[in-house]
# Entry
Amino acid sequence: MTPNDRNSVTSSKQDLTPLRIALPLILNSLRVVTESDVLPLGSVLGRVIAKDFLAPISVPPFDNSAMDGYAVRSLDLAGSNMLLSVKDRIPAGAIGDKLSQGESARIFTGAQMPQGSDAVVMQENCEFVNHEKGLIRVLQPVSAGENVRSLGNDIRQGSCLFRAGHRIKSTDIGVLASLGVENINVKRKLKVSLLTTGNELQPPGKSLASGKIYDTNIAMLSSMLVGLGCSVTKHHAVADTFAETLKVFEEAAGESDCVISTGGVSVGEEDHVRDVVESLGKIDLWKLALKPGKPFAFGRIKSHDLIPKFFFGLPGNPVSAFVTFGLIVRPSLLAMMGCKAQAPTSFKVATDFERIYVSEREEYLRSRLDSSSEGMVARPLNNQSSGVAVSLSEADGFIVVPSFSKVNYGDRLGFIPMSEFLY
# Structure
């Protein structure tokens, strides 16, 4: 009996694994990389912090004015005399002279508070009484600390700003820059081998040959991997033979932390990926109770360095590949980088369709999100074929329809924005 004969016999008996079971199973089996790199701030967007980061200084590093106005001693305004002399002018970046009783200083937003002052009066609440003598009248008293941003009000020196495993966002880079940080310790990039299988596939950039289609998945998935901070080695259009698939998988396992393939994990006569992986290692999970995305596989592949490499086998159809990548592969790779792994988050929206679902497969419907007088409404796209890649560009996200459920107009279901899969 050939491997394909075996597949055809056993496929009908294969149970489908729900996502709620599959994802924890995978996450609990992964190995976290321990190596790290010290990189400049301009290179760490999307990378994962390797160890707890403690603030080296306080921010702001000194008491400073929260607005344009006059720095004063609040006690000078406690009585009936609201006249003060203007002793100094302090723009941002300058250091003013010490204030004594009855003195004030013209001060601008962000400027360091002069010694002796403890509050700022808004310029709108002051008026000049005598320009020649530099006398102002304060129209409204202030209390100590009013309109002052105190030292460490934003960040205290020594406080833990980012825990190990935090994935760096653009806003985080701004915070790090405010602390004078030039370089930071992040987990090294995951090395990922990305394979597409199929004799019909052709790389973009050449005239399309008869009977061929362009390889959508390798371009789409490699861009998603790069966005996650991975180093990607691409293997285009692996031929649909057992020998060629075996050769490429052995090579891929030897050069990477994990191997991701698209296509070849179903039960067709030209689908060799499952048999190759089982010959090199082990399949831990095969077939999901998911639509699109049923023909998914997870396992391990032995490599020449004796360290088993994790394998993710995605369906060949672009939408199925995208959905399984976003729901399973993305959180798995983040977990391998030491990042807190979470399934994409959703929020409830109203639906504008009705349907009875008698399938055990949870369905993810590509949908547009519109506003109405009653809130946000999700409207599924007309064409839900898993081969229609353009629908991924047209959709705002996915409505999550539970298995064995009845959906009525206006029912509130989970909606996952497209951004949860991409960033």
Observations:
- The chain has four domains: 3-35+189-336, 49-59+155-187, 64-149, 347-422.
- The longest strand covers residues 362-372.
- DSSP finds nine helices and 28 strands in the chain.
